[in-house]
Structures are given as structure tokens and as C-alpha cells.
Amino acid sequence: MNKVVKDAREAIERAQIKDGAMIVFGGFGLSGIPENLIVALRDSGVKGLTCVSNNAGIDDWGLGLLLQTRQIKKMISSYVGENATFERQFLTGELEVELCPQGTLAERIRAGGAGIGGFYTPTGVGTVVAEGKETKSIDGRDYVLEMPLKADFALVRAFKGDRLGNLVFRKTARNFNPMMATAARTTIAEVEHLVEPGDIEPDAVHTPGIFVRHIIEGPTYSRRVEKRTVRSGHGSR
Question: Which of 4, 114, 164, 222 could form a disulfide with 209 if both were Cys (CB 3.0 to 4.6 A apart)?
């Protein structure tokens, strides 16, 4: 039951991620991204990946690292505006992109983890989002059918985890991570603090260990933000 492995490199190797895999990545912007696992995935050299994430990172961090090395074939995301590498690859036809409204993306991932075959949403009706999809009128309102997202692998990050794989997320870094952990055949979690079984109150667990195959304790975290903005014209107090 001990799911701990030495480091991110070993976790990626044990998971046996191959070329062409579909991977969901936790995080929102750069908050809560599995940064150590992303670096290890880059170093593994796997390519042709389909990556599902709220965003595509920035040029030199997050999924931007995998874009730099051209390991991503397709991105399924809701926001990609902070990555010039992404823009260049998309405009030249190197990168396939599926843009998805953020709430719809979250629900597609949740549906994949919950075993739901699909769901109707009014979001995107009458736009390019609905092109080629089934639509239906319910109580006088039009809806579009969205299908679940189920991946081969999930890479997530938690604030705390125990050796059995039980995870606790913290504040904004919780974001997409819990639902991502349920929506893949194999989930790898990196945590900021690795604790012993019993150290986490059962009621405090966000993701039960049954969803997690491997867990590592990350050595360092950069805690970067996309854009740091401060007000000007105000003296310090």
C-alpha cells in the first residue's frame, strides 16, 4: 500500500508513459501545477502527447516546457493567452488546439471521473463551440451535448499527502486537481508535504488514495505567477 516513489523521474518511469498518451494536468494558471512531474515528463522525451489543462503555462514554465521541446501534439484548454510559444505553434499548424469553455472543461473532466456518458449545457450554443455537436431544446432553451474527458494519465499536485495516496489541497491550488485525479487510468501525485497514514483527518481528505497510483514529495516549488501587478502612485505604509 506504500505508494511513495523516490522522485518525479522514477514516478514517470514506473507509470510507463508512452508516445501518444493523453494526460490531464492539475493547476490553474501556474497555481497548483505539478511542476516537478512536468520537468520529469519533459526529460523523459515522450512525444505526441494530448494534454488537457486549464491553460498552457507560460513560455518557460509549466506546460510551456513541453511546448518548447515540441512534445505536445494537441492541447485541450480553456485559456492559452500567456504563451507565445503556443501561439507560434498553433499559427504554423504544428499544434492542434481544442478550446473549451472553462466550466464545460471542468464538467467534462468531472464526468470522465464519475463515469457519466455526457451532459447537456447551454454554454457555447450558437457558436463555433457547438459546431458538429448534438444540440437539443429542453424547456424552451437550447443545449449542446458535451462528452466526458478520460485520460491515460493524470499529473496532480497537492499540499499534503500520505503514503497511501490520500491528498489534501490548499486554497487556490486546489482548483482542477481533485477532478483531474479521478479522470485517468493512472494518477501520479506530487505533494509539498509527505506525511504518515493517520496524520490526515479522514474528513479533511479531498482525494482518497484509491485514485492515486504513485506519490512523490517535491523537493522545491517556485510559486511563480503569470503576471505580478502592483498599484502605482501609493506610498508604502
Answer: 164
